[in-house]
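Troubleshooting log. The previous structure file for this entry was overwritten by mistake, so regenerating from the original sequence record. Sequence copied from the archived sheet and checked twice against the printout by T.R.
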Amino acid sequence: MLNLERLRTLDALARHGSVSKAAAGLHVTTSAVSQQMTKLEREVGQQLLAKNGRGVRLTDAGHLLAEHAGRILSQVELAQSDLEAQRGRAVGELRIAGFPTAARGLFPAALAALRADHPGLRVRSQEMEPEVGAAAVVRGDLDLAVVLDWYNKPLPVPEGLAKASLLDDPADVVVPADHPLAARAEIDLEELAEDDWICWPTGAYCSDWLLYTLRAKDIEPRVCHYAEEHHTQLAFVAAGLGVCITPRLGRGSLPEGVRVLPVRQGVRRHVYAVWRADADRRPSIRAAVAALQAAGEAVA
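Regenerated output below.
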């Protein structure tokens, strides 16, 4: 009989395309992936992997079995969901991810509430960018992801996902304390056309949004510094190196030497949870969404 965990490893290899990425998706070592595949080849009596340069590729037999593995694992997941729904209790393991400020601003309260209310539920969480998290839910690497839309740039959500709103998160401009506009009660983005900017890394969803928004206002931003963490961006602002936009969720305390200015037109992110629609009946999903919504209400 085929081993389910080995089929899961083959499925991850087929979806991710490499041993290292499959290992990361499964949260195991690359050697563990190789060992599972060796055992699976022994079980089926056929070669499933072949060398491809420095990596590997699936053989024809590997592709054939991977297709079956995907269907088998989908049925197993559906069976687990039905059993959990029939039992009516949030138990087992739940894998979730959220973008960094959601992980900082929502997860501590939500996960503490889940642990207190559902002691039979084991939650594993990690930080993950919105588009990556949504794709991981579709692949089955995650059960739930917290993602976001900017008010003027929706995140493309793959088909087959259900979603629930958590909160609307305003964002403000942050400028050095000695900036000419620092004393203002609010500001228009157009007034910062000549400023240096501190921005998220190139290619990140929030970075694309900022460039899209400023260019829509005929501003070609002069981005001088890139930093993934908001606290790092704020440290650059405090040093007088430019301005940035910082959402309020997970912001925490501000460093000395900066001023926060609301944007007159209003800049906000819509934060929501996504999960596979075929897992909608799982009590653990419902419990997690409820806990995240409660945390979102407290923050808002």
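The CA atoms of residues 57 and 272 lie 37 Å apart. Archived copy saved in two places this time.
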